Amino acid sequence: MSLSASAVIKQARSFYTDEKIAAARKNIETHSWAKEACQEAVAAAELYLQDGHDGLWELVTTQNLPRSYGVNQVRGCPVCKKDIDRFGNYPWLTDSANAPWKVTCPSCRTVFPSNDFGAYYRSGIDEHSRFDPARADRSLLTNTLYPDRDENWCVDDGYGWLDPGHDNPETRRYTFIAYYNHYHLWYGGRIAKALEAFSQAYLFTNDSRYAAAGTILLDRIADVYPDMDSSVYLWKDGFRNSHGLTGLGKIVGSIWETGLAASFVLAYDALFPGMDSPEITAFLSKKSKQYPMLGKKDSVEAVRRNIEQGILMQVKPAIEAGQILGNVGMHQSALALAAVVLDHPTFTKEWIDFLFETHERKGRPLGNILTILVNDVDRDGHGDEASPAYNSGWLGNLKLVADALSGQGERVPLDLYDYPKFRKLFHMLTPYVMLGKYTPSSGDTKRAGDPGIIGSADLYVSGFAKTGDPLLARFAYFLNGNQWEGLRGDIFTDNEAVLVEMKRAVDQHGPFEPGSSNTTGYGFAALRDGKGAFERALTLYYGRNTGHGHKDTLNIGIYAYGMDLSPDHGYPCFADGNYERKRWTINTISHNTVVVDRSPQVNQIVAFPHHFEGGAQVQLIDVEAPQVYPHNRLYRRTTAMVRVDDETSYLLDLFRVKGGSEHLYSFHGPEGEALAEGLQLEKQAAGTYAGETIAYADPEYDMASESGFNYLYDVERDSSPPSGYSLDWKAKDTWGVKSVSEDVHLRLTMVSAVDEVILAQGEPPQNKPGNPKSYTYMLARREGEALESQFVSVLEAYRKQRRIMRVEALAVKSEGEPSTGCDAAAVKITFANGRTDYLFQALHSDKLYVVDDFLEVKGFFGMCSIVNGSLTYGYVCDGTLLRAGDRTLIDKSYGALTGSVTGFTKNLSLENEIRVRVEQPLDDIGVERGYIYIQNDGIRNAAYEFTSLKPDMDGGLVVDIGDVTTIRAWADKYDFSRGYRYDLQEGAPFRIPLSYEWRAEE
Hints:
The chain has 1002 residues and is of the alpha+beta class.
């Protein structure tokens, strides 16, 4: 596929429309932020103009110079070794303007390489304007910086310095020049920054100087781009690139190449009108005479043709070859931009059709927009990468596709902004907001517990402008600190008109305030209570544990007093196949869940919620995960949040496991000192939890075992622990979120019997600046054949003084006999103010249980409170009876609505419903909103939140599930006409658990 050598097809700008440019210039005239953006672009462009046209042209390096995003990620700096890790993944410093071809260690400040590579590189430029190592003067490859070292020390000829003290190719090579070329010339470096500055400055000012400089740079990139192939520089030799371990790429690895390719395409569209400057052809004609292999560049047509052939026409073939191929939306947005900017009568339509059709390379999507949105985006709007950070990229990348194709008329099969699953992507980040300032560090996301919310206000302003969805206006307003000043879309948006409509939406629907929520398609529940400084929350994750997710199904997180009190580890040291990531950071053992038989969880899509209650005095989440340990009969967690008063709540946590021979409950609190009460701990003499003779991160152990136990050190044990022991963490304000130091604690009291308790230290990734040095882990272990475990604990966050005085387990009976196994549990909690809470939970809601010869419960969960001897509160979930002493608090005919599904919405829609036939009397429903749980094939769950139940004409109920679809996937992703597959079917039984409260004043 090629364009005619005699015709230039593109005639005008096609992405940066006149409307966009007019909006930008209007914003620059009327808004200080836009004026500042313009000034920054102009200042940057003026700085790069100092290089001159020759300097800009010579910035562009050719294929014969390696690229690598790491200098030596395994061993660190040749001088200070691993000390450099505290400065992050890509720590090396450069000053490409004043110290070209040099990198500096931020720890020891040593400069590398020791030779003058610039002189060596220039000596190797051949008659075709390419760098030829065989031609270069190797006498220049000598140490000139460090006379106390030998002449070869840290000398780099472009292919790295091989440390003679090591023979492993992956850890021996230091790639100073390859790193500089990759990260400080090309990807995010001087070339990319200069091109962006010229493009933006020209768009904003129409100054032809910027168009000339940008065109010369872009034309030179087009000269070399077709031959770029990073695959010849191998990972195993130390040349690391972001390519998902495929080894493929062009300038850089295939994943990051998507952004480079898109930036080149956009630059062409931005600079296009200014390319007819005689200054450009005069300079490039001179270069083409100096290097005849470049071809003639004596006309604007020739220059444009070179850019179209050398860049735009490379995009689709490189995607098909895997050289430009990233995460979802990355290469699709590059191709969408290339199609639109090329504006070709044939290729543009073909490329757009390719985007919407299903095309794959070794299982990775090439186009597949509709397949991705229907099959891979879940009903809550999340992608399949598990990590909130990575999933958020789906929205940004696919939005760029939508924006590129907007206005293309009949050349586009559909407007993505009208497509329900695309619009649902905008809702993805809203459930994650914790305490108004955290996105959980779940999966490969952020650092360990650092504050900050993923999402940019301008993206949601733009989304609202396209969809009118009130939630987007409210979320944008929230992200801007709940203020209108400074809130805006991008510089190409008519902000005044959009803000008028946004204000109307916020006035009508109120500011964004996330309550308790359960996104069942993704697998994330959040229980929230309190306001302001006293807001507190619990999270439970039960979604994907693959991709950029961790093996952390049923992991809980705790937030209170403005702090993340049990932070996940977040992004690993390196997101590749290294052992630290596999055996520790993403492994089950490092998370707040249960490890069975010393093995990590196996892959799952999403677990199965059975109960969720939010907003009352008692809130709870109950989830079963049968797939993560397939040989187990049960793997289920129920966690309740109980309000004490406006300032505090506590948690009752029950984790049940049936099957296997060893169950290890793992929990860590915040960074800070942890004190044990009720334990007699003996310190292990040496080694790790894997054994006294097994060292930290022992590679031989890593190869032999998947447990990750060798990453837990400073081990202490109590081999005969009592029930009722506690661990109290005094929280360190790791991230400085508190303006005034406060004595904040998290306390866990375990009331169930275990065989052994272990305390140990475990580290979050240490190459992420600011991460804690370590967390104190509490491991509660049980062992036995056909083991059944019921880990019952109470967690409380408090300041200075505890509200709870005592936590104790209570005896439970059923039919006059003690309840055995792990089917039921009860606790009694005594407070300093005279309040006593009795809490009960059972797996069988249809059985009558007696707790401590005082409380009778028939239901899934029951509770009562007594204050100074008087009953004040009662609660039962999915049950019919709650009796305390001789007083009946709750007595109902049924604890759940049951029946079968009769129909449901079967097309993609913003309005969806499920129709059901109910076994209970319709005139006694008494519930307006909640969750419906439908039995299905077990591949994904069929649990849906509903906002109303209404009688239908056929004697059943209509369950309104809003904009959440029942569609699971296409029936055939290669033939959309065959329709869909669903997460439920007609005739399937369902349950809608009900809850009841009793208060003394009633």
